[in-house]
Amino acid sequence: MNPVNYLYLAALLFTIGATGVLIRRNAIVLFMCVELMLNACNLAFVTFSRMHGNLDGQIIAFFTMVVAAAEVVVGLAIIVSLFRTRHSASVDDASLMKL
Amino acid sequence: MENLIAPLIAAPLLGAAVLLVGGRRLDRVGHWIGTLLSTASFVFGLILFADLLGKGAEHRTLTQHLWTWIPVGGFQADVTFRLDQLSMTFVLLITGVGSLIHLYSVGYMEHDERRRRFFGYLNLFLAAMLLLVLADNYLLLYVGWEGVGLASYLLIGFWQHKPSAATAAKKAFLVNRVGDMGLSIAIMLMFTTFGSFAFGPVLSHTGDASEGKLTAIGLMLLLAACGKSAQVPLQSWLGDAMEGPTPVSALIHAATMVTAGVYLIVRSGAVFNAAPDAQLAVTVVGAVTLLFGAIVGCAKDDIKKALAGSTMSQIGYMVLAAGLGPIGYVFAIMHLVTHGFFKAGLFLGAGSVMHGMNDEVDMRRYGGLRKYMPVTFITFGLGYLAIIGFPGLSGFFSKDKIIEAAFAKGGTEGWILGGAALLGAAITAFYMTRVMLMTFFGEERWRNQPTRSPGAPSAEPAAETHGEHAEPHPHESPKVMTIPMIVLAVGSVFGGAFFSIGDRFLHWLEPVTGHSEGDSPLSAAAVTGATMVCLVIGVAIAWAQYGRKPVPAVAPRGSLLTRAARRDLLQDDFNHVVLVRGGEHLTRSLVYVDHTLVDGVVNGTAAGFGGLSGRLRRLQNGFARSYAVSMFGGAALLVAATLLMRAV
Amino acid sequence: MSFPLLTATAALPALGAVATAAVPAARRTAAKWLALLVSLATLALAVTVLVRFDPDGTRYQLTESHSWIKDFGVRYELGVDGIAVALIALTAVLIPFIILAGWHDADPLETGNRRWRPTQGFFALILAVEAMVIISFEATDVFLFYIFFEAMLIPMYFLIGGFGDRAHEHGEETAATQRSYAAVKFLLYNLVGGLLMLAAVIGLYVVAGNFSLQQIAEARASGSLHMATSTERWLFLGFFFAFAVKAPLWPLHTWLPNAMQESTAPVAVLITAVVDKVGTFAMLRFCLQLFPEASKWATPVILVLALISIVYGALLAVGQRDIKRLVAYASISHFGFIVMGIFAMTSQGQSGATLYMVNHGISTAALMLVAGFLISRRGSRLIADYGGVQKVAPVLAGTFLIGGLATLSLPGLAPFVSEFLVLVGTFTRYPVIGVIATFGIVLAALYVLVLYQRTMTGPVKPEVSAMPDLRVRELVVVAPLIVLLIFLGVYPKPVTDIVNPAVRQTMSDVHKTDPKPEVEAAK
C-alpha cells in the first residue's frame, strides 16, 4: 500500500484530536484528544521513517510515547485532584489563573 | 614682627569660638571675654603700628605666609597676610572703634539674655573684617568679605523672633550675595588674565593686560563694592539693616563693614587707573548714591534710618573720591576714617537716646532731650558738627578735600561731580540739622502720649522695666556707654585736623595708593567757600522748617518727592514687583513645569505601558481552550509562513 | 602576595551586612551596635587605604587582579587612584554617621514587639549599600563595575520603599503608597539607565575584546585600538546616560526629589551623598578615559545640561514647601556643578568636581540629618509647620544654619573651595557658562536663607514650643561633620594633594591642557 495513505490517516487523526481539544470541555476527553494528536504524530513519524528508509522517525516515535506516558501520569493526577476539590472535570471551571 | 599679624585676627576669632561653643556657662563673663579679646587685637594693632612707624616709608609692608590653601594646577591660593599702611589704617579703625563698641554694648545689651552670643557674633565680625583688610590675595579677601556678610546677617537678625529683623537679615545677605557674585567673577577674570589673584602679581602687571579685561574686572569689583557698601543700585538693604541692635548699626553698618567697598576699590587702584571707563562708572555710582542717600535721609522719621541714609550718602562721597583715581584715593580713606569716628558716635548717641526713651525710634516723638541727656547731647552734637563739615572739625577736612578733588577731575565731568558733591553737602547739612532739632530741641513731644514699642518682646532694657504704654522717662545712659561716646566725639573733633596738618595722612598712605594733584578749575579757597555757603543754606532751611515751627507728631503727607523718599525712592517697590514677584511667579511655574512636564513625560510613559498591559492581559481569560486556539492559530501561521517562504 | 586591602574594605561591610541581618529579632540593639562597629572598622580600613596610597606613585595602586569569567575576559580587577581614594574615604566616613542618625528610624512602633525584624534589615541594607559603593569605586574592570553599579539598586530599593518617616500628614497608608511610588520610580529610572549601559558594556567588549579599563585605556591612548567615531559616540552615550540618571542631571532628575522626600533622612543622605556620587565618579573614570574623543564631542551639550541643572535645581528649591524636597533640588543644583566641573576639562574644574563630591557629601549630610532630627520632633516635613525653632532649640538651629551655610558655599566652609574651583575651571574655558553658573550662588543663598527664616526665626509656633534641643547622640552625629566642613574649608590641601595627580592623568587622557592666562604674572 502506498505509505502516503498513512500520512492522510495521521492528518485526519490529528485534526480530530485538535477539534476535540477545541470543542470539548471535559478534561478527560480533552486529554484523550491530546493523546490522539500525539499518536497521529507518531504515525506520521513512523511513516516517514518507512518512506525514507531512515530509523530516526521510529526513534522519535518511541521518545514521544515515553513522554506521553509521563504526561498521562502527571495529567491524570492533576485531573483527579481537580475533580476531588471541585467535583467537576470541566476545564472551563478551572480558570483561577486568569488575571 | 610680622608674626603678630595672625594673632591680630586669631584673638577675636578665638573669642567667637569660645563664646559660641562655650554655651550657657559663659553667660556671666562672656561679654568681658569678648571685649578683652577685641582690645587685645587693638593692642596688637598698636604694636604693629609702632613698628611700621619705626621703618622707612618703603619698608612698611609686612607679609606673613601661614599655609598653602588651595593648590590646583596654576590656581594657587595661599593664606598670606599683608600689612601695609592701608591695611594698618583699617586695622586701627576696626579694632579701635570695635573695642569701644564692645564696651558700649556691655551696657546696651545688659538685660538681653543672649548677650553672650551677641558678643560672639561681634568678635566673629571683627575677625572677618580684619581678614578682609589683611588678606594678601583676592580669594582670601573674599573669605573675609563673605565672613563680614555672615556676621552682619547674624547681627541684623539678632532679635530673630521679630519677623522684620529676620527678613532684614535675609535681605542684607541676599543683596550682598549679588555683590559677592561680582567679586567672584572679578577673581575669575583676574585668574584668566594674570594667572593669579594675589595683590602683588595682579596689581603690578596691569600695564600688560588689555584694557577690555581690566574694565571688566573693574566693573565687577564695583558691583562687589556696591553690594557691601550699599551703593546704588544695591543700596536697599542698609535701611532695613537698622533692625539690628544699635551698636551693630554703629560698628558694622556705619563705621567699618560698609566701607569695605571703598577699601576694595582703593586697594585695586592699579586696575582702575588703567581702566578709565570703570573709573567713570565708580564716580557715577558714588555721585548718584551720595545724593540718593542724602535725599532718603531727609525724609525718614526713624532716627536710625535717617542716619542710615546719611551713611549711604557719606560712603557715596568715599566711592566718588576713590573713582577719581590717585587724586582721590587718600581722601577717600581719610573721609572713611573720620566718618568711622563721627558716624559711630552718632549711632551710639542714637542708641543712647533710644535707651532712655523706651526704644522709641520715631523722631517725631522726641524733642527737647538736651536737658535730660547732656552727655549724649554734647557728643551727638559734636558728631553732628563734624558730619556737616563745620570748620575745624574732622568732617570739614576730609569732605572738603573730596569736593576739591571732584572739581580737579577736570572737564564737564569735574563740574558735574563737584556740583553733585556740593549739593550733597547742602542736603547733609539739612537732614542732620533736622535730626538734631527734632531730637534735642523743640517741645517735649513724648509727654502725654503713649509710646509704642516697635518690637513688642524687645530685649532692650527699657521696655521691660517700663510698661508698654508708660510715658518715657528720659535719662542719661550709664558710664560704660557714655565713655565710648566721649572718645568717639574727641576723634570726630580732632581727627581731621590731626590728619591734615602737615598732610600727615597723605604722606602715610601715599606709598600704597599713590597720589597726584589734579588741576582744579577752582582754587581751594573757592571750593571751601562754596562748601560753607552750601552748609549755611542747608542749616538755614532746616531751621526754618523744624526749628521755628513746632514739629507735628504725625508726619504730614508731604510732596511727591518726600513720599517717594520715605519709601527709599521706590527702589524697594521696584525690587518687590520685578524681582520678588517675578521670582515667585518663575519658581511657581517652574515647580508646575517640573511636576507636569518633566515628571509628566515619565509618568505618562509609565501610564502608557500600564494601559497597554491592561489591554494585553485580557487575552489571559482563563479558558484553556481559548489558549489552545491561539496555539493552533500560531502554529498554523508558522506553517503558512514557512510554506510561503519556501514558495518564494 | 600582599594583603588584599581593597577587597577587605569592600568585603567587611558585606559580611557585616550578613551578620547584622542574622542577629535574632529580640536582640535589636545588638544589631545596631554590630552595624556601627562594622562601619567603624570599615572606616579604619579606608583610612589604611588612604595612608598606604602614595599620591606621587603609579596611577592605580593597591591593585588586585584575578581571573573571573575566562570565556568573556572578565576579571576581578581592583585598583584605586586619588579620586577613588577620596570618595572611598567619604563613604566610609559618612556611613557611621548615617547609622547613628538612623538609630531609631527602624524601631518597632510598639515597644516589646519581639518578632520585629526590620531593624536588622535596615542596618544590614545600609552596610550592603556601603559595600557595593566601595567596590564600585575600586573596580577597574568595566563588567565588575557594572554588576555592582546595578546591584546597588536592590538594597536601595528596599531602603526607600520599606522605611519612611513615622509621622505623615496623610496617614500611614498614603505614606506607604507614596513610598512605594518613590521606590519604584527610583528603581525604574536607574534600571533604564543601567540597561543602556549594559548594551554599551557589551558593545565595548565587542570592540575591545576585554573589559579591563586599564588595558582599553592604554590601547586607546597608544592607538592600537581604533574605534569608529560613531561607535565611540554611541558607546559613550550608553555609559553617560546611566551615569546622568544616577548623578542626576536635568532632565533625568525627577526620581531624586521623590526618593529623598519619602525615605528617612539617613537614607536620603545615603542616596544623595554616597550612592549618587558613583554616577559622577564614573563619568570621570569611565566616560573620559574610555571615550576621550566622544567626551569632547558631547561637552557643549553636557555643559548646557549641567548649567540648566544648576539654575533649575536652585529655582525649584526656592519654590518647595517640603524641607526634604528642598534639599533634594539643592542637590540637583550641586550635581550640576559637579558635572560642569568634570566636563569643563580643566584641572581646576576636575579637581574641584572631585572635591565637590566629597564636600557635598559632608554638607548635605549635615543639613539633611539635622533636618531629619527636626522633622522627627514635629512629625511634619512642611516648612510652614515650623517657626521660631531658634528660640526653643538654639543648638539645633545653629547646626542647621551651619549646614545651610555650607550648602550655600560660604567661604571658610569646605564647599566654597570646591565650588569656586569648579567655577574658575569652567570660566577659564567657557566664560559665559561660568558667569551664568555664578548666579547659582545667589539662588543658593535664597533657598537656604528662606528655609532658615521660615523654620527657625519669627514667633514660636505653639506646636514647636516644647521641642527638645539636640540630644547627645544627635550631637555626636553633627559635630564631627561640622568640624570636617570647617577643616576642609580652611585646609583642603590633604585632599587636593591626593586628587591632583589623578586629575592630571585624566586631563592627559583627553589630551587637554589648561588655558594659559593672558599675562604671565605669576612667575
Please report the two chains with the greatest interface, counting residues with C-beta closer than 8 angstroms to the partner's C-beta: B-C, 66 and 67 residues
Q: Structural class from helices and strands of chain A?
A: mainly alpha
Run of helices and strands of chain C: HHEEHHHHHHHHHHHHHHHHHH
Count of extended strands of chain C: 2
What is the CATH C level class of chain A, in words? Mainly Alpha
Query: Could you give the order of strands across the largest sheet of chain C?
Result: 1-2
Rounded Rg of chain C: 22 Å
Distance between the termini of chain A: 53 Å
H-E order of chain A:
HHH
Kindly give the count of domains of chain A.
Answer: 1
- The portion of residues forming beta strands of chain A comes to under 5%
| Poorly predicted sequence stretches spanning 5 or more consecutive residues of chain A | none
Sheet bearing the most strands of chain C, described?
Answer: 2 strands, antiparallel
First and last CA, distance of chain C: 47 Å
Largest sheet of chain A: none
* Total individual domains of chain C: 1
The computed structural class of chain C is mainly alpha
- Which assembly state applies to the chains in this document? heterotrimer
Indicate the overall shape of chain C.
Answer: globular
Low-confidence stretches of chain C: none
Task: Give an overview in words.
The complex is a heterotrimer of chains A (99), B (648) and C (523). Chain A has one domain: Orthogonal Bundle (Helix Hairpins). In chain A, helix 1 (4-23) packs antiparallel against helix 2 and helix 2 (27-52) runs antiparallel to helix 3. Chain A is mostly helical and 99 residues long. The N and C termini of chain A lie far apart (53 Å). Chain A contains three helices and no strands. The radius of gyration of chain A is 16 Å and the shape is elongated. Chain B folds into three domains: 1-274, no CATH class; 283-447 and 477-555, no CATH class; 557-610. Chain B has 25 helices and two strands. Chain B has helices spanning 5-22, 30-53, 85-108, 115-134, 138-156, 163-194, 199-204, 211-228, 236-240, 246-255, 260-267, 269-273, 276-299, 303-323, 329-356, 374-388, 394-408, 411-440, 461-465, 479-500, 504-513, 524-547, 560-566, 571-616, 624-647, and strands spanning 62-72, 75-83. In chain B, strands 1-2 form a two-stranded antiparallel sheet. Chain B is globular. A two-stranded antiparallel ribbon of chain C has the order 1-2. The longest helix of chain C is centred in the middle third of the chain and has 38 residues, at 171-208. Chain C is globular. Chain A binds chain B through residues 18, 21-23, 25, 30, 91-92, 94-99, and chain B through 617, 620-625, 628-629, 632. Chain A: It comes from Streptomyces echinatus. Chain A: Its EC number is 7.1.1.-. Chain A: It is found in: Cell membrane; Membrane.
